[in-house]
Specification:
- By secondary structure, the chain is α+β, with helices and mostly antiparallel strands.
- The protein has a domain at about 5-70.
- Helix content is about 45%, strand content about 10%.
- Helix 8 (about 235-250) packs antiparallel against helix 9.
């Protein structure tokens, strides 16, 4: 038994967690429970498990040791991290798929469709199952090898940028940044995980330059990718939404801080409505995952409310929070 109790909000508290669920230091796994179904975090002396999405009755709840960022990566990357740190080969439903859905390549035949390579005995191979859905093109083994080699070179660059992430304007020269998206679009499918990682770096790059409009297009890509690959409540998706909302406001001339908003000379009602909705979606996810008193939720809530007050002060009423997602407390 996990020794689960119920909090006032209806979430589960892990009061006593057996050693089998802890890592070598005696700590709980870092993030996700239940094959994208739930999430652990600390709350005082307790570990709190909150449902990220509906959990059907009787479904087994398993544990992932990876952070959300890693769960957006390729099967090879996730397995490599787990083998290096936990010493096992992951064979969960996601990692066992023959075709990795976040590792598609742009079809060199028609330039429109996507190609996926099949994992066969530990190596990627061309297959009819992964042929282009538009023109039916199937790469030769030599072409597949070239795709994999190019992908590896891009991944090495991304890993280097990850190590320098606090100096975006320095480690990404402008000519490199301008070439990146064009090159990515020619090599990878829209849903390739490295395109998402590059997009996140380009958001930082353009933000550092004060180019909010350019940053916004990549921030929107990050929001869409996280929602598609990692459905359900997600802190990473929530923070991507917050970044998107911040950039929409900056493009419209607003001043934006961690928990406040400053209006320009005139307030655009449509912008207010759009960003209030974006912030509300982010706030809902963070409240569900961390609780109503957590600093993550409080900051985005205060920013949303500040924007709403600006709209009201300018004679325009912003919309109430709207959500189509089931709240975690309703799923137990």
């Amino acid at each position: 038994m996990l020794g689960l109790g119920r909090s006032e909000e209806g979430f589960l508290l892990a009061k006593q967690v057996p050693k089998a669920f802890r890592d070598a230091r005696g700590e709980l796994p870092r993030l996700v429970l239940g094959t994208l179904r739930g999430m652990w975090h600390y709350e005082g002396d307790s570990f709190v498990m909150r449902a990220r999405r509906d959990i059907p009755q009787g479904e087994e709840i398993t544990v992932s040791y990876l952070a959300e960022e890693s769960l957006l990566e390729s099967t090879a990357s996730r397995r490599s991290q787990l083998e290096a740190t936990k010493h096992f080969l992951c064979n969960c439903a996601t990692c066992s798929q023959a075709l990795d859905p976040v590792r598609g390549f742009r079809c060199p035949g028609c330039g429109k469709g996507d190609i996926f390579l099949e994992m066969v005995m530990g190596s990627l191979q061309p297959s009819t199952q992964g042929a282009c859905g538009v023109c039916g093109f199937q790469p030769t083994e030599a072409q597949a090898k070239e795709m994999i080699d190019q992908e590896a070179r891009v991944e090495e660059c991304v890993q280097e940028w990850d190590r320098k992430v606090n100096n975006a304007a320095t480690y990404l020269p402008q000519d490199t940044a301008l070439r990146l998206e064009k090159n990515m679009a020619g090599l990878f499918a829209d849903g390739h995980w490295l395109r998402d990682r590059v997009a996140r770096h380009l958001v930082s790059f353009y933000e550092a330059l004060g180019a909010a409009e350019e940053a916004l297009s990549f921030a929107t890509r990050c929001v869409d990718f996280a929602a598609k690959v990692y459905p359900g409540f997600s802190a990473l998706h929530a923070w991507s939404l917050e970044t998107q909302g911040d950039l929409i406001l900056r493009v419209a001339g607003f001043g934006v801080g961690p928990d406040h908003v400053e209006a320009p000379g005139s307030v655009d009602a449509e912008v207010c409505r759009e960003v209030t909705g974006v912030y509300s979606e982010a706030a809902e996810a963070l409240r569900a995952l961390f609780g109503a008193d957590h600093e993550f939720y409080v900051a985005i809530r205060d920013k949303r409310d500040a924007l709403r007050e600006l709209c009201t002060a300018n004679g325009r009423q912003s919309p109430k929070d709207v959500t189509n997602r089931a709240k975690p407390e309703e799923t137990w």
